[in-house]
Amino acid sequence: MNQIFKLTSRRNFLFALGALAASSTVVISRILERHQDIEALDNPQRNFTVTQELSLKQRAAAKGLFYGTTSTKSLLAANPAYMAAIVENCSMFVPEWEFKWTAGDTTLRPGFDKFDFTAADWIADFAATHKLLLRGHTLVWHESLPKWFKDTVNRENAQQLLQNHIQTVVKRYAGKIHSWDVVNEAIEPDDGRDDGLRITPWLESLGTNYIDLAFRLTAEADPKALLFYNDYGLDYDTPKHEAKRTAVLKLLERLKSKDTPIHGLGIQGHLSPGKYKFNSQKLRQFLADVASLGLKIIITEMDVADNYLPQDITLRDRIIAATYEDYLSTVLDETAVIAVLTWGLSDRYSWLGEFKPRSDKAAVRPLPLDQKLRRKLAWNAIARAFDNAPIR
Ligand code: G3I
User: Fold this and answer.
1) HEC sequence for 130-148
2) Global model pTM greater than 0.90
């Protein structure tokens, strides 16, 4: 009996060893393939040189475009050099926190009928002082809502709350805002609804009409601002991004057919090379479909996450630059695109350091300037895309 047991367990052991070896080979070959795929993202012959000593905003302006970025009051107030870099490169600005209901160290809406404009006013003054076109971000979003929101808002008071918010905030800055992201990230096909709408507190308390309502209220409060719908996950050749493009397009068509005062689509443009495949034809078609509705397009929050890229900085920076140039040269071919903003200007102040850190703990490098505000290849790539863009 013992003998049989020994033989069987020896056979099992050898079998398990064989299976382990086979599965390790599969894993190793997958890692190698992935490594090769990522290396292939860089073409060593490609160069990112730029001609002329011009800033990004000057290169954009030569094509009838704007270039901008985001930051916060606390960061700008504490970093004169960073503020100077923004003023040098940008013609457009969007606050990262101050126009949201609450974010970071700022709360615009401390209570159901309370407003605190201290930080938002500072941002509006900063933009006016430096002649930066100001974007408002954002009036209706399922994130960045204050704690009291969940306990207080219901079907009876939601419309009054939204109306009061939009009338008060939008009127206060009327005449100072280039464009509002009226509604942010309202599409999520994974939530399983036929209309593709994300299930949010706004949808639950106001019904499907809340998007149209928000646009109408904003247009009434500031008839001159351009009104945008803003979303992410629209860029790549994946079934998920394809579903999102389709649902966003349907939403825009529905709004246009109801004469909702909407003027544009904000495409956030948070890119992830090494994770997803890019197909310029599919993106170009989507942009053309949006433009055919008579809408403008802004790339509102571009950055290039490097958490799937190798640690080597030279290689990483080349892949990031190529990602910027390939994406921007595709989108800028569409003349309905009127502006490009990156979600930050320097690697030192990117949300990605906290939200998508690298597993090797190396500092992330997703933006045009490095930690010390020196230009990177990504800066050149953006400059080249502006230089090669058609005039609009
Ligand atoms: O500063 C505190 C920190 O002390 C604390 O340890 C940490 C814990 O989570 O929170 C920190 O503040 C957070 C801040 O980001 C800094 O990381 C805030 O809670 C958080 O509200 C804030 O997140 C912002 C986020 O939107 C939500 O408002 C990000 O700064 C901002 O970059 C991000 O921006 C969004 C766009 O609005 C919409 N599209 C996606 C984009 C990136 O997520």
Assistant:
1) CCCEEEEEEEECCCCCCHH
2) yes
Q: Is 4 helix (H, G, I), strand (E, B) or coil?
A: helix
Q: Is 104 in the pocket of ligand 1 (CB under 6 A)?
A: yes
For 63-108, what is each residue's pLDDT tens digit? 999 999 999 999 999 999 999 999 999 999 999 999 999 999 999 9
**Cα–Cα distance for residue pair 175/224, rounded to 1 Å:** 7
Q: Same domain for 5 and 135?
A: no
How does pLDDT run across 192-220, given as a tens digit for each residue? Answer: 999 999 999 999 999 999 999 999 999 99
| 334 Cβ closer than 6 Å to some ligand 1 atom | no
296-304 and 337-342 beta bridge pairing:
parallel
Q: Residue 96 Cα, ligand 1 centroid: separation in angstroms?
A: 8
Check if 100 has its Cβ closer than 6 Å to any atom of ligand 1. yes
335/299 same-domain check: yes
Say how many C-beta atoms besides its own lie within 10 A of residue 261's C-beta: 16
Same domain for 29 and 77? Answer: no
pLDDT (tens digit, 9 = 90+) per residue, 328-372? 999 999 999 999 999 999 999 999 999 999 999 999 999 999 999
104: CA distance to ligand 1 center in Å? 6
Using CB atoms within 10 A of its CB, is residue 309 exposed (0-12), middle (13-18) or buried (19+)?
A: buried
Number of domains, the chain: 2
**Ligand 1 center to residue 238 CA distance, Å?**
27
Probe target for ligand 1 pocket from 96, 184, 228, 229, with the most ligand atoms within 8 Å of CB: 96
Query: Which residue in 96, 301, 325, 334 is the catalytic one?
Result: 301
